[in-house]
Amino acid sequence: MAESLLHENIYTLPNFLTFTRLVSAPVIGYWVLQGDYTNACILFGIASITDGLDGWIARRFNMQTIIGTILDPMADKTLMTILTVTLAAQNLIPIPIATIILGRDAGLILASFYYRYISLPEPKTFTRYWDFSIPSAEVRPTMISKVNTVIQMAYICLSLMAPVFEFTGHVGLEYLG
């Protein structure tokens, strides 16, 4: 008798918002590298708003999905990684701070790949591993992780705004770094 596999609806508004944040990250990074800080700031602001909005909508309207619990931190990490690298390349954040941010995020990403693998129901195949409509493990960020994300986003936001509002080298921004 064939085993019936559990699938969930992954086509929800919160997942769409999260996916747009994921897709916007390379665009923002490109604009940073091109020195188009104004457009980068605007799109980063929109991406930051979707970070809170997607979770609120998912909880409020019972649209939570397993893929959403995976995509949301993935979108956060992608956005933070691309902006950390591009802002460091533009000398808007110090390399040691960029290294700390990237090292922590790399560890979290590797752990999430492992956690997905060990929690995926049998049979474990390459295709099933990447089929996010098959629930495996729900990822729930801790409060300290949420606070860390907010602090990192604020730091990145201020660093991104610095050339737009001409406060690069400001003593307050230097102390944050």
UniProtKB/TrEMBL annotation:
<dbReference type="InterPro" id="IPR043130">
    <property type="entry name" value="CDP-OH_PTrfase_TM_dom"/>
</dbReference>
<dbReference type="InterPro" id="IPR004570">
    <property type="entry name" value="Phosphatidylglycerol_P_synth"/>
</dbReference>
<comment type="similarity">
    <text>Belongs to the CDP-alcohol phosphatidyltransferase class-I family.</text>
</comment>
<dbReference type="GO" id="GO:0016020">
    <property type="term" value="C:membrane"/>
</dbReference>
<dbReference type="InterPro" id="IPR048254">
    <property type="entry name" value="CDP_ALCOHOL_P_TRANSF_CS"/>
</dbReference>
<keyword id="KW-1208">Phospholipid metabolism</keyword>
<keyword id="KW-0472">Membrane</keyword>
<dbReference type="Pfam" id="PF01066">
    <property type="entry name" value="CDP-OH_P_transf"/>
</dbReference>
<keyword id="KW-0812">Transmembrane</keyword>
<dbReference type="GO" id="GO:0008444">
    <property type="term" value="F:CDP-diacylglycerol-glycerol-3-phosphate 3-phosphatidyltransferase activity"/>
</dbReference>
<keyword id="KW-0594">Phospholipid biosynthesis</keyword>
<keyword id="KW-0443">Lipid metabolism</keyword>
<dbReference type="GO" id="GO:0043337">
    <property type="term" value="F:cardiolipin synthase (CMP-forming)"/>
</dbReference>
<dbReference type="GO" id="GO:0032049">
    <property type="term" value="P:cardiolipin biosynthetic process"/>
</dbReference>
<protein>
    <recommendedName>
        <fullName>Cardiolipin synthase</fullName>
    </recommendedName>
</protein>
<dbReference type="InterPro" id="IPR000462">
    <property type="entry name" value="CDP-OH_P_trans"/>
</dbReference>
<keyword id="KW-0808">Transferase</keyword>
<keyword id="KW-0444">Lipid biosynthesis</keyword>
<dbReference type="GO" id="GO:0005739">
    <property type="term" value="C:mitochondrion"/>
</dbReference>
<dbReference type="InterPro" id="IPR050324">
    <property type="entry name" value="CDP-alcohol_PTase-I"/>
</dbReference>
<keyword id="KW-1133">Transmembrane helix</keyword>
